[in-house]
Amino acid sequence: MKFILSILPRHLLIKLSVFLLPILKILYRGKKFTDPIDGKSYRKFLPYGHKKIRLNALCPGTLSLERHRLLWLYLTRETSFLKEKNKVLHIAPEQAFYKRFKEIRFWDYLTLDLRSPIADIKADITNLPFDENVFDLIICNHVLEHIEDDKIAMKEIYRVLKKNGVAIMQIPIDTKRLKTFEDPKIRTNKKREELFGQYDHVRIYGNDFFDRLTSVGFKTKKIDYTKKLSEEEIKKFSIIKNEIIPIGIK
Questions:
Q1: In whole angstroms, how far apart are CA 107 and each of 100, 103, 113, 165?
Q2: Rounded to an integer, what is the distance from CA 45 to the centroid of its chain?
Q3: Which end of the chain is less enclosed by CB atoms within 10 A, N or C?
C-alpha cells in the first residue's frame, strides 16, 4: 500500500482518503512523529515520492507532506491569516488543509481546480473566473511546475489578488540552480520524469522563480522557516531542512 500511495496523483489520494485515513490512523499510532496540523502522533509516517522515495514523508492521519507541515507551522506561528477575516482562494486544494481551512469562521473560503472532487469551482489557473482585486489570500502550492505557460498563471493570480494581498506559491525548487530548466519540446511522461523528476512536471525551477514573480508585478519574500525550527522539531514533524516558502505580495 505505501508504494501505491507514493505514486498516486493528488485527486485520487483525496478520493481514497475517506476509506484509508481511519485505518491508517490506527495502524500507525505511536509517539515518534507528530503532525502539527492535527496534533496527532504516529510511530512513523509513510514513504512518498515519484522518482525518489522519501521516508517518513506522508502523514497517515492527514495525508500531509513535509511542505504542508512546514507551511502550517509558518501560518500558525508567524502570521495572523488563520485568525483574521479573509477572502481566500485555494487552488488545487490539498487534503491536509481542506477541512481545517473550511472550519475557519473568519474566512470566505473558495477552492478551485480542474479535476479535484473537493473543488468548489472547476476552472483553469490560466483563466481564473473572477474579477480583479477579489482575494486577500491565494494559496497555490505545487501547481505552477505543472503549467506550461506559468507566467500567464502568475499574472492571473496577481490580477485577482487585492492590493497588498498575499499569494503563497510553494513549488519544488532547486536552489543550486540559477536558472529554471524547461524545454517545451519534451512532451512524453517518461522523458519528463527523467528530466524534471515527475511525469507531469514541465520544468525544474531555479532561483529565478522569484524573478518570474517580480516580472508580473509581485513583491516577493523567500521564507526559509526551517531556520526557526529546532533540530528536535525538524525530526519530530519530519520537515525538510532549507525548504523555501515563496510569498508574493501585490
A1: 11, 8, 19, 14
A2: 18
A3: N
The closest alpha carbon to 250, from 204, 197, 214, belongs to 214
- The grid coordinates of residue 111 equal 477552492
How many Å apart are CA 215 and CA 183, to the nearest integer? 20
- Cell numbers standing for residue 25: 490512523
Q: How far apart are CA 143 and CA 121, in angstroms?
A: 16
Give me the numbers of helices (H) and strands (E) for the chain, helices first please. 8, 13
φ/ψ (deg, to 5) at 170: -65, 140
pLDDT digits 0-9 by tens, 74-92: 999 999 999 999 999 999 9
Domain ranges of the chain: 2-67, 70-228+241-249
What is the distance between the alpha carbons of residues 68 and 72, in angstroms, rounded to a whole number? Answer: 6
What's the pTM value of the predicted model, to 2 decimals? Answer: 0.90
Q: What pLDDT sits at residue 133?
A: 98
For the domain spanning 70-228+241-249, the CATH number is 3.40.50.150
pLDDT value of position 13: 56
Answer whether residue 15 shows pLDDT above 70: no
